[in-house]
Amino acid sequence: MLNLVLFGPPGAGKGTQAEYLINSFGLIHLSTGDLLRSEIADGTELGKKASEYMSKGELVPDEVVIGMIKSKLESNPDATGFIFDGFPRTVDQAKALDKLLNENGTPMSAMLCLEVEKDELISRLLNRGKISGRVDDQNQKVIENRIKVYQEKTEPIIEYFRPQNKHYGIDGMGGIEEIAGRIKAVVSKL
Known about the structure:
The chain is of the alpha/beta class. About 55% of the residues lie in helices and about 15% in strands. It has nine helices and five strands. A five-stranded parallel beta sheet has the order 2-3-1-4-5, sandwiched between helices. α2 crosses α3 (about 45-55) and α6 packs across α7.
């Protein structure tokens, strides 16, 4: 089984490359945002718990999100693998995900970390903001803060996966196909 964490700062191209990985390797996409919305829409117990937190403007606790991921893994026993998008975002979440996957006998294969220069990230996000209308992609100060939060809170996950030899830095500069080729070269060797 191929379990991948697609990782990188805002604007690194995770969404674009996730589609490529899904299509190229037949993986199931696990986006925590999509999972939360789906569980809430389906009225599941986990969805009800998540909704309670979200309605108060609070973050959904890790154990609820991990429960949703576990449910998704169990409901796809014949999957060739999963791509985790938007999770983990903290070292504690990385540890919880690692524990869950190991308990399932399907350990994490790799953390694919898209590495992109800060100026390029800002440029990509400002351009995306013009096209998508996403408010958080239209203000340079907001974008710079999102990158800073990523560096402070999320980037430390690299040091969790690196000693396990699961961290793979991938040059995220250049065209979409060029970056996809670099990712394919890494994933093909796993």
